[in-house]
């Protein structure tokens, strides 16, 4: 998943314009990196009082394709083109100096160095040593719903909040189906305050 994410990010930051909408007959279901825009940004704010605030474990991708209201067409009954969230950014805009908790947890991610590029391992190890991420054994893949954000980072990979940093991941497999490993949660802010921004990248699937 790391190499796919890096490839997607390279494509996303290319100076060239996003590719045009493909026709329904030309959608390439083997290419996971196509995109055409962003949903409206979503700002979120979490406090520790009166009770620690968090967001439960969830997926960003949809279980089924949705019509995009920004692409409504008279010739298609007023419906928009079908899309899903191919990728996500979560940007930490603010993290108070006294913050505790509030990380972004991926309970099903298995940090296995032998499956990763050595450069990726080095980068992740630096993040671990700096306290930017926490690594624990992943939760069994057959019980993702049992992960409770209110209980803290029980398993997997957790990115601690740091103002000016961001987490990026790819939500879909090349087939267009959701990647179950992207289950994630906003862990409780037990002290301080966190402000973040969600950015969801759209992939077009035609009419």
TrEMBL record:
What is the required cofactor set for this protein?
A: L-ascorbate
Q: Name one Pfam family in it.
A: 2OG-FeII_Oxy_3
List, alphabetically, the GO terms of the cellular component aspect: endoplasmic reticulum
Q: What keywords are annotated for this sequence in UniProt?
A: Dioxygenase, Iron, Metal-binding, Oxidoreductase
Quote the biased-composition stretches of kind Polar residues, using this chain's numbering. 1-13
Domain Fe2OG dioxygenase: residue ranges: 37-203
Kindly list the GO molecular function terms attached to this UniProt entry.
Answer: iron ion binding; L-ascorbic acid binding; procollagen-proline 4-dioxygenase activity
Establish whether keyword Metal-binding is in the entry: yes
Which residue stretches belong to region Disordered?
1-25, 135-156
- Record carries keyword Transmembrane helix: no
Q: Which domain of life is it from?
A: Eukaryota
Q: PANTHER family of this UniProt entry?
A: PROLYL 4-HYDROXYLASE ALPHA SUBUNIT (PTHR10869), PROLYL 4-HYDROXYLASE ALPHA SUBUNIT DOMAIN-CONTAINING PROTEIN (PTHR10869:SF242)
Q: What is this protein called?
A: Putative 2og-fe oxygenase family protein
Q: Whose protein is this, by species?
A: Phaeomoniella chlamydospora (Phaeoacremonium chlamydosporum)
High-level lineage? Eukaryota, Fungi, Dikarya, Ascomycota, Pezizomycotina
């Amino acid at each position: 998943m790391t190499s796919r994410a890096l490839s997607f990010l390279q494509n996303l930051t290319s100076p060239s314009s996003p590719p045009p909408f493909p026709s329904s007959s030309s959608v390439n279901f083997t290419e996971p990196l196509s995109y055409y825009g962003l949903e409206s940004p979503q700002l979120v704010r979490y406090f520790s009082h009166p009770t620690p605030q968090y967001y439960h474990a969830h997926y960003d991708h949809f279980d089924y394709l949705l019509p995009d209201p920004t692409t409504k067409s008279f010739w298609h009954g007023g419906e928009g083109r079908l899309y899903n969230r191919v990728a996500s950014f979560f940007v930490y805009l603010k993290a108070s100096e006294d913050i505790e908790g509030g990380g972004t947890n991926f309970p099903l991610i298995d940090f296995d160095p032998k499956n990763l590029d050595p450069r990726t391992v080095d980068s992740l190890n630096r993040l671990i040593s700096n306290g930017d991420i926490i690594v624990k054994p992943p939760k069994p893949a057959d019980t993702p719903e049992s992960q409770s954000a209110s209980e803290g980072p029980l398993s997997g990979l957790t990115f601690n909040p740091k103002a000016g940093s961001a987490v990026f991941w790819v939500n879909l497999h090349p087939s267009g189906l959701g990647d179950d490993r992207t289950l994630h949660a906003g862990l409780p802010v037990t002290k301080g305050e966190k402000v973040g921004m969600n950015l969801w990248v759209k992939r077009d699937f035609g009419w």
